[in-house]
Fold this protein.
Amino acid sequence: MRLTILGGGGFRVPLVYRALLADPAPAVSEVVLHDTDPQRVAVIAEVLARLAQGHPTPVPVRVAEGLDEALTGAGFVFSAIRVGGTAGRIRDERIPLSEGVLGQETVGAGGVLYGLRTVPVALHIAERVAALAPEAWVINFTNPAGTVTEAMSQVLGDRVIGICDSPVGLVRRAARAAGASPAALADPARTGYDYVGLNHLGWLRSLTVDGADLLPGLLADDAALDSFEEGRLFGGDWLRALGALPNEYLHYYYFRRETLDSVRHTRETRGEFLDQQQGGFFARAAAAGGPDEAYRLWEVTRLEREETYMAHSREATGGWQRDSHDLEGGGYDQVALALMHAITRDSGTRLILNVRNGTTVPQLAPDAIVETVCEVTAKGPRPLPTAPLRADQLGLMLQLKAVERATVEAATFKDRSAALRALALHPLVDSPAVAGRILERAAGEG
């Protein structure tokens, strides 16, 4: 089976390939890379060549020049593109900050701006997949993942699935902090969890092992909460008030003032850091001329990237550093591999995915994309029943879903009113005047 990776020059593509090489029962027979930047994809191909060295049966890798060539014959299409590159991300962050509101890649005004720029490209990809590989499954990691998956589903229906590594990382860290044994975590018959929301806006509301819910005990234990990332981010008092463990990105909503203050007083935004870091990596790796040095540079850069993840939120809560358990996360490469396995093997695996709502959240439209626990078979993912949402959870979901859908409408139909609505209705913007100025400046800067 052929796996096509769009955004094949992306920095984290080697993580996917490394997972494929470590797979004891590989389903992928070829990897095809496609990227609009030939230098980046050439460097990543070198890193993959180094990963394949010494492997008894490495998965062949090919670089396709055109999108149609890359998609033809694909069984799975992994989409991880970045429209506008890191320069676009810098604008998405700096323009809102100039108006005194948060600029972030997937959250707030920055997420809306990124969505407006990305949705038209994602729709074109979806149309080409429908024409050239109609039986392929599209796994979307392109941010803002909820918005982009929602747009692509208008063309591909249930055959596009959004993934994120934050929810599974939260489940693993919480289970470890609650004292669940590795054996229990590895046995799906013994463990269960209730997670529901939107991409980067979800809550872990129960965590059971052998029928007992470990979450109440974890929420009551300040020492255990202080042992993992989300516990330190939100603090015991607030987590007990919520009665749930939020996705780390909810820190931007619950602690908006503190995080905004941290971002406004920093020397560089996350986009500026990555622009310099990754730009330097690709330039040095291209000049090095060889798989060994390209791989060494990639590993050094990758670790630095992971250590600085969500630095502003950590600065706003005391400036602590990520530990080894935090760095393990969920691994979007592992999520993608598990999803492909579940479909090809018809296994009924449970995964937290971005899929069409159906009846999961009755207050949302059936075709709205939600992030929740699914059972995955050869027919794709099926959302599992979930407990009713609390009013505060539902309220945030409804408001952010209105923002996502307005973003898709604006990008699809070039509708300025919809774009203004998407920005102004976002709870981290909450001002039509500010939204209008952000929109005009973003349009003026391309």
Notes: The first strand starts at residue 2 and ends at 6. The chain is about 55% helix and 15% strand. The CA atoms of residues 21 and 120 lie 34 Å apart. The first helix runs from residue 13 to 22.
